[in-house]
Amino acid sequence: MSRSERKWDHIRFALENGEKHTIAFDDIKFIHQSLPNISVSDVRLDHSFGELSLSSPIFINAMTGGGGEKTYQINKQLAIVAREAGLAMAVGSQMAAVKDRSEQFTFEVVRHENPNGVIIANLGSEATADQAKVAIEMIGANALQIHLNVIQELTMPEGDRDFSNTLKRIEAITKTVNIPVIVKEVGFGMSKESVDALSKVGVSFVDIGGFGGTNFAEIENKRRRESLSFFNQWGIPTAISLIEAKAALTEMFIIGSGGITTALDIAKGLALGANAIGIAGYFLRILIENGVDALLEEIKTIHEELSFIMTALGARTIADLQKVPLIISGETYHWLQQRGID
Ligand code: FNR
């Protein structure tokens, strides 16, 4: 099976997977404030962290690497949505296009459609510093995502089996490129230990890519008939992973993603310390099933709902929202107790 056929399988199975429960987010509760002393028109959704300035705290997370005409069409449509809604957008893995110049058009279209937007390049952790430079130049990227996908690789018959020296390669990339390097998971979450290890090699942005949404173990197991089904429930739920990352020894710029589909969970993710929230599968499903206009309408609704939630909490800015008090109960509370995180 070619790389682009495999990637198309991923899209098909990701869509079939349907929406998931936002597991640990249900354990997180806001505290109602009767006197927020604020108007909806006071709320601002723009937010800056590190070298990144975003006009919305939500962004379109990496999807559709692999190349080919289908990748081109999806990337083009996502880029139009990103431009019209003012969202940052990460592209899917560019490795195929780094290795084969004839595939570059499938990514270049993203910058072409959105000349002034924040666009994030993407490669796997097998990438070298030179490959990272090519991926960045291909789309004039404002940041680079390096994805970690040990479980996905293990569940793929043709996947990698050797995960040594990943940190060394990431360190080489952070030292070479002059834009923010965001190390991301793809739906299995990051522990405090993983975030600490990344910070020690100079990484200052992580997208914890938590468990609860698109599940690449399930997707790969469907393709190979469930033989590694124990990985289907493997991973750190997004809300818990955000708290783990926040407890890291060095303060990091944290991004949250994994199974987020509602304004309430976006608000909870930001209140847990995320600076931005990535959405992949949910946006892709709307785009493929209902088109560009439907996705733009959904983003508008999410922005409006987020403004209402922030108003109810008296939070004028995303920085204010990051400071509101929260009550944490259930499995999440027990997890944090055992991990000694408060
Ligand atoms: C992805 N994701 C992904 N991530 C990455 O870093 N590089 C990639 O090439 C891809 N490809 C990809 C294809 C498809 C079809 C989907 C649905 C997802 C992972 C994505 O960025 C995200 O981390 C996970 O999907 C979890 O977020 P959601 O989907 O639960 O919002």
Automatic annotation (TrEMBL):
GO terms for cellular component: cytoplasm. Substrate binds at residues 6-7, 152. GO terms for molecular function: FMN binding; isopentenyl-diphosphate delta-isomerase activity; magnesium ion binding; NADPH binding; oxidoreductase activity. InterPro entries: Aldolase_TIM (IPR013785), FMN-dep_DH (IPR000262), IPdP_isomerase (IPR011179). Pfam families: FMN_dh (PF01070). Gene3D superfamilies: Aldolase class I (3.20.20.70). FMN binds at residues 62-64, 93, 122, 184, 214, 280-281. Keywords: Cytoplasm, Flavoprotein, FMN, Isomerase, Isoprene biosynthesis, Magnesium, Metal-binding, NADP. It is found in: Cytoplasm. Transmembrane segments: none annotated. One of its GO terms (biological process) is isoprenoid biosynthetic process. Its EC number is 5.3.3.2. Mg(2+) binds at residue 153. Its main location: cytoplasm. Residues 164-323 form the FMN-dependent dehydrogenase domain. Its cofactor is FMN; Mg(2+); NADPH. It catalyses: isopentenyl diphosphate = dimethylallyl diphosphate. It comes from the Bacteria. Involved in the biosynthesis of isoprenoids. Catalyzes the 1,3-allylic rearrangement of the homoallylic substrate isopentenyl (IPP) to its allylic isomer, dimethylallyl diphosphate (DMAPP). Belongs to the IPP isomerase type 2 family. Homooctamer. Dimer of tetramers. This is Isopentenyl-diphosphate delta-isomerase. The lineage of its organism: Bacteria, Bacillati, Bacillota, Bacilli, Bacillales. The gene is fni.
